[in-house]
Amino acid sequence: MKKQELIHLHGLLAELQNNSDAAGEMPSDEYRELGVQPTSIHRSKTDHKAAVFALIHSITDEFEDGSAEPVPATAD
């Protein structure tokens, strides 16, 4: 994946994180400790990759907690 694509993905995940933080749903300490924002284009590709994985980890932890309601497979 190119650095530009990784930064774009980082931006999308960060937006999802921000929306979830506003609802008080997801912890993001691991991500904040990195200090890498999607706008930090001067940071290395490796830094953005670590930030993406931290965001994904936060998002998946929320789903693994089981607090989310299951979605039915078929619509009535």
List keywords for this structure.
76 residues, elongated, Substrate Binding Domain Of Dnak, Chain:A, Domain 2, 3 helices, mainly alpha
Topology overview:
Elements: H1 3-22, H2 29-34, H3 45-64
Helix pairs in contact: 1-3
Description:
The chain has one domain (3-62): Substrate Binding Domain Of Dnak, Chain:A, Domain 2 (Up-down Bundle). 61% of the residues lie in helices and 0% in strands. It has helices at residues 3-22, 29-34, 45-64. The chain is elongated and about 50 Å long. The termini are far apart.
Radius of gyration, CA atoms, in whole angstroms: 14 Å
Look at the structure and give the CATH class.
Mainly Alpha
Number of strands: 0
Give the topology string: H per helix, E per strand: HHH
Provide the β-strand percentage band. Answer: under 5%
| CATH topology tier name | Substrate Binding Domain Of Dnak, Chain:A, Domain 2
pLDDT averaged residue by residue: 84
Structural class: mainly alpha
Q: State the major sheet.
A: none
CATH superfamily: Uncharacterised protein family UPF0058
- Taken together, the total number of domains comes to 1
Ends distance: 40 Å
CATH 2nd-level architecture = Up-down Bundle
Low-confidence stretches: none
